[in-house]
Amino acid sequence: MAGGVKRDRDGNARAKPTQDLPRGRFHAMFENFRDELDEHYDRRERVIKVSRDVTAQSKKMSWLTLRRVKELNKDFPQGIHQDVDTRLSEISKLLSTITADVQSINRYRYGNSLKCLEELVEALSFAHYLRHQKVITLEETQAATPADVVLTPHDYMYGLFDLFGELMRFATVTTAQSGQLVGDYERNILSDIQELGCSFELLPQMPTKDFRSKMEVMRQSINKVEKLGYGLVVRGSERPKGWVPDMKDDDPRPSSPV
Description:
It is found in: Cytoplasm; Nucleus. By secondary structure, this protein is mainly α. It has a single domain, classed as Up-down Bundle (Methane Monooxygenase Hydroxylase, Chain G, domain 1), CATH 1.20.58.2140. The chain has helices at residues 27-65, 78-96, 106-109, 116-132, 138-144, 153-178, 189-201, 209-235. It is elongated and about 85 Å long. It starts with 26 loop residues before the first helix and ends in a 23-residue tail after the last helix. The mean pLDDT is 86.
């Protein structure tokens, strides 16, 4: 007659000591699976934590540093230049802690946990546009990315999608302060954002929710800058100094079919 299950004082069954458990021929194999999964979840947690911190630093570089720039195609003042370098140094330290975790196939395995790279591309592309009035290339973005972390075309494209929002906010603030669209007679921020938007409209449509959402936000940002420019031309003399347009999402045009 088999002995009963031993339980503790709370009624929970006591686990048998490991050395008393029978070992089958697949026991070692499943122990390896367990160890690999433990390593996978540990790596994923490290990547998620670093991604959150890199996202915060990238947003600070855009919001607290680059928003202080008021002109295009000029080098940054010393104070802003130092702030950008400081943020990038912090990002480099953070990414270096997970460089070994995102090599080879793991770079794609943890792709969804590395959304911070899109935020980093957005900040780098915004800084590049302010300094050179050009769109940063994938190669230039990779060269400017701290640590040995590979950027994918997806990171680059989605980071540029987010650039439209930064350009729209930059155009709104500088126009309110100066009374005109930043740029020169041949090229200003309105013509730049329209040209960039036309290039994105030529992209093959991807049947994903993220892509459709990014495209719709891009079109809204372009439309707001267009309304800003048209308002300056048609009613510019009637605008009081410091006037800022209403940036609510009140676009009367129907959304594109999904």
